[in-house]
User: What shape does this take?
Amino acid sequence: MRPAIDIERRIEPRTRERLDRLADWDTTSVETIRASYAAVRPAPVPPDPAIERRDDVLAGLDGGPDVAVRWYRPAAAAGPLPCLVYLHGGAYIMGTLGENDDRLDRLALALDCAVCSVDWRLAPEHPYPEGLDDAETAWRRIAGEPDAFGLDGERLVLMGNSAGGGLAAALCLRLRDLGLRAPDLQVLIYPMLDDRESTPSMRALAAGGPGHRGLWRIEAQRLSWEAYLSALAPGEVPPTAAPARAEDLAGLPPAFIGVGDVDSYLDEDLAYAARLAAAGVPVELHVYPGVIHGGFVPRPDTPRTAQFLADACRAIAAGFGR
Assistant: This one.
């Protein structure tokens, strides 16, 4: 078993200073977790003058619900654009479109692309598979009608962070099984993949440990998975709910996976990357020393988080064929 990480000394100093100023997570219930998250959620960012933001609604599939999305496009861009379809994080129980405005403004500018951020439905009000269904609706509308959105249908990348990374991985499994157009690249940012709580990295960040203030821990993880999987019978969790359970990963699109080494998802992400590679799927894996869950930020202030953002941008550009 891996030796315990010295959390206090391992996290990058500026990140440690920021965490020390925060109240700790209240993991009593889904509602208290949401309240803890709201307390640290970034304030809304005014639109960058160089970016056009537009809210839209994509029609549901086969009588299903419509899906709200937010578009980000460089104001000066011309011609059909490559598109990054983005699934926000939030442990399947939290997250909004607005909290990602700064991140997605910057990605659209840096990559000279359109970004479509999907407002997928949250558990426990909307358990599995409702959030995944929303992601599928958005993907199929964009992939099936790129001209209607001013997009280059030959250059489509799927990205998600945390629970959004889990949804992105699950969507790739679903699209493969349905024989539908897959992303040119799946970008999984510290994805939430495994509901079984069995890895050393997940169990290392339990309540009461030194230096754990502000870190995502197993207690919050357990409540989040329970909320998301509540519609399933015990023992019947499919791979499209928890992608780490997939037995066959062959035929999936190429992947970029990035995770910090002070992240409870480290081991499940390493295992998923290794299994993708073993199945013949091209994988680019990055592990960032001292980076915590949530360390992929639009305005990084540490060397490793800056590298994380730069690596992801380079991989997406390559996914667009640049």
The chain has one domain: 7-319. Residues 7-319 form a domain with the Rossmann fold fold (CATH 3.40.50.1820). Residues 113 and 196 are 37 Å apart (CA to CA). The chain has a mean pLDDT of 93.
